[in-house]
Amino acid sequence: QNDEIAELSRSFSEMRENLLASQEQIRQLAYYDFLTGLPNRVMFQDFLSRTMARAKRHNEMLALMFVDLDDFKRINDTLGHKVGDELLKNTAQRLTIATRSADYVFRDFSGREPDMIARLGGDEFTILLTYIKDSSDPATTARRILEDVSRPIILSGHELCIGLSIGIALFPDDGENADELIKNADIAMYHAKELGKNNYQYFSPSMNAASLERLTLESELRRAVDKQEFILHYQPQVDAVSLAVVGLEALIRWRHPLRGVIPPDAFIPVAEESGLIVPIGEWVLRQAARQLKTWQQQGRRLVPVSINLSSPQFRHVKIDKLIAGVLEEEKIDPHYLKVELTESILLGAGNEVVRMLRAIKKTGVQICLDDFGTGFSSLNYLKRFPIDVLKIDRSFVMNIANDTKDAEISAAIIALGKCLNLSIVAEGVEEKEQYDFLRDKGCDAIQGFYFHRPLPPEQVAEFL
Ligand code: C2E
Ligand code: CA
Ligand code: CA
């Protein structure tokens, strides 16, 4: 009997141990980030609220740093999630070391509450500096972090140089509660990014308006993708001699339920940065193909439609497959579709981009180099990449009549294109003098307000 009791008691104590272990596991899961082992958002917010309450009682200052990796998405997209995860782990370690060493050198803790470093999610980290004597202290720590973390590292055989953008919000000045302080540090971080990355910014109330706008824009854009609030307008391109419409450029507009029609320059940059351009670009492609189909069914004369591609779409490995798939679905001859891309896509492009462009060409779709003359305008691009059409940027065309240099550059681009057997389109032609000049120099097609503005599809149909 004694044995039975002993056995039972052993079982109970085993159960108790298991229970404690799983409680500890649950605590780990609930409060710590799985990948980096740092405290997670829940734990950080809780710690922040408590620390703020205490700081208020003792009239102490706190600083919250919002840290975001520059171009993390690009690394994740190009080198894969494994390298991305490694980079996050490595960054967590380096942030911890850099913050500690800054503390050690610049600040005196003498037994107070320690700093906390947490991962909020994705590539976002927060650091709470708990014992601040002077509002310039966090800047010293931020500089230290930027210096340490931006040193190159080698991950899976790739040498990576990662930049950070840091936003700093101070307690009590910049926020009364945890949410507000985090939000304002985030806003300051966006400003740091806009100022050219790998730097830090203190929050100031004037940042609020602009950044709030950007944050709202992004979430509204996300909704617009779901609700399909976009429309395409089409700007005709005319043959420089016969003036017949020989092509159309599809240009996106956002029909916002409250703010009316928003032009692409106001939202494409945000779409590119947030990755939303990938679904938006896919919609543009599909919509353009459907439109061609509609015109075809109406018995219109079809002309090629160009769509604009952004670099994030290009990194989307299957863009050629996507194009081929959509053309197949809508039963559209590939001659009727062209893609426009800018030099930034080709910039520093490795063989991957060359392969991708060749794959696009294989589908039978032509490739236009957009805004030519504004980037590096490398002759090497024209030689290396399978380009069919060169679009002279509006900034040259604009000054043809009153700036001889711009006129000469436009003429030279036309001559160069002819030598390389490319078709030349001039953009942004608004005046007769510009048109006359370009036609005389042998430019093939003209796109500009002088002939046609971008138009809704019903109106374009009249030209077809
Ligand atoms: P872009 O590709 O250079 O397109 C030409 C822009 O010049 C269009 O502006 C067009 O309306 C404007 N334009 C044409 N002729 C004239 C002219 O004679 N005078 C003046 N002042 N402007 C002229 P829009 O439609 O506002 O588009 C702006 C930019 O937004 C485009 O520049 C393109 O980079 C981007 N974009 C538009 N649609 C898309 C899209 O579907 N996907 C992507 N990724 N980008 C797009
Ligand atoms: Ca374009
Ligand atoms: Ca252009």
Mind explaining what this structure looks like?
By secondary structure, the protein is of the alpha/beta class. It has 18 helices and 16 strands. The strands form 3 sheets. An 8-stranded mixed beta barrel has the order 8-9-11-12-13-14-15-16, surrounded by 4 helices. Strands 2-3-1-6-7 form a 5-stranded mixed beta sheet, with helices on both faces. Strand 2 and strand 3 (124-132) form a beta hairpin. The longest helix has 30 residues, at 2-31. The chain is elongated and about 105 Å long. It binds ligand C2E and calcium ion (2 copies). Residues 370-371, 391, 427 line the site of one calcium ion. One calcium ion binds at residues 370-371, 391, 427.
The number of helical elements comes to 18
Q: What are the bound molecules?
A: ligand C2E, calcium ion
- From the N-terminal CA to the C-terminal CA, the straight-line distance is 99 Å
The portion of residues forming beta strands comes to: 15-25%
- How would you sum up the major sheet? 8 strands, mixed, barrel
Classify the helix fraction into a percent range. 40-55%
Quick rundown:
With 464 residues, the protein is α/β, with parallel strands linked by helices. It is built from 18 helices and 16 strands. Helix 6 links the parallel strand 6 (164-171) and strand 7 (200-202).
